[in-house]
Amino acid sequence: MICVVISLGFSVESAKEMLEKHNGDVESAVEELASNLGRPDDQPVAGTSKDSGKLEASRKRKEETKKEKAAYKRLAKDIPRTEEDHLDTGLELESEYLHKYLSFLNS
């Protein structure tokens, strides 16, 4: 986690402080660092192409993370939470499902 924040140009101290403040949430830590400091440590003043490229990369990562979280939520609701939630089928019916699935894969 800290490596991601440091790779964006922020100091180790700033990265540690913000990650602790945001309980390890990299997105929130980077967002606060970018908004409060205006620029990563030892980087050009905001508005230069180098700085805006890093900010754009940070935005893209944040957007990708949001998409991943949404995909996980969609997937998680289909995962059984208790033993009783599983599909109770016999071997014949399960075999039928597998044959149908294989036919979809082969077509």
From TrEMBL:
Residues 51-71 have a biased composition (Basic and acidic residues). Residues 1-36 form the UBA domain. Residues 33-71 are annotated as: Disordered. One of its GO terms (biological process) is regulation of ubiquitin-dependent protein catabolic process. Gene3D superfamilies: DNA helicase RuvA subunit, C-terminal domain (1.10.8.10). InterPro entries: NUB1 (IPR039749), UBA (IPR015940), UBA-like_sf (IPR009060). This is UBA domain-containing protein.
